[in-house]
Design goal:
Blueprint: H1 2-39, E1 43-44, H2 46-52, H3 57-65, E2 71-72, E3 78-81, H4 82-91
Antiparallel strand pairs: 1-3, 2-3
Helix pairs in contact: 2-3
């Protein structure tokens, strides 16, 4: 039995050398897909988007008055696309956090 194992060992090692890079690539692709799926959510309601933008809901409402567009939902709610909001901020020169003065 040991002779069979010794005879197969070089073949097994060769197979491992060929298989490991393929397995690593498959695992890498799977991990990237799972991470991508988790990070692909881009629609948020007003409160969630204000939090993501690190501003108050009041400031976010001001942006809407200034022309920030929302996407209506079938139930009548409004959703905001993260990429659209970021692009709108850039186009309108809004790149600093709008916070009220905190006394002093």
């Amino acid at each position: 039995m040991a002779a069979v194992e010794e005879a197969l060992k070089p073949l097994f090692n060769q197979w491992l050398e060929e298989a490991i890079p393929k397995l690593e690539e498959r695992i890498r692709i799977q991990v990237m897909q799972e991470l991508g799926a988790k990070s692909q959510q881009s629609l948020f309601n007003q409160k969630e988007m204000a939090k993501r933008q690190n501003v108050s809901v009041t400031t976010f409402r001001k942006w809407r008055v200034m022309g920030l567009k929302a996407e209506p939902t079938p139930t009548g709610g409004l959703m905001f696309d993260l990429n659209t909001v970021n692009q709108w901020k850039e186009e309108n020169g809004i790149n600093k956090i709008d916070k009220p003065n905190q006394g002093g």
